[in-house]
Design goal:
- By secondary structure, this protein is of the alpha/beta class.
- It is built from 4 helices and 9 strands.
- A hairpin with a 2-residue loop joins strand 3 and strand 4.
- Helix 2 runs parallel beside helix 3.
- The relative contact order is 0.21.
Amino acid sequence: MEPLTVFYEDRPDAMAPLTLAAFRAESNHRPKTMLIRVAGKLTDESLATLYQTSRGYSAASFSIVDFSAVTDFAVSCRFIRKLANQKAAMADTNSLLFIVAPQPYIYGLCRMFQILGEGTSPLLQIVHTLDEAFVAMGIKPPQFEPSVALA
């Protein structure tokens, strides 16, 4: 995956260049689904940038953050606890949020985030693959349209 900058078509001010991790946002309108793919080294700093960029943006019925291409998950347990105690990242807390984490270590830390944040993100689900997320949503894998700007 080429280094990318998060860019939302309807919010050009929401561009977030990242030095350690690359994010690519994609969307689908039927059903309204937002997919954010993350690649490279993910740190406390880059995860905070992703969290803040996505906050207040998504009005999607389903949102997915895909960590499949993360090569180094350098996010501290302390930071995960801090995020779990914050308000949900997505604007609509009635929409389902999935985190795709195929790597066992990342999956475990994401489950820790889910458990600690049950009060603020009750509709968060952690899965191993994108296909698992689509099955849980009850939909066929949609065609996503890139909503990005190259870094």
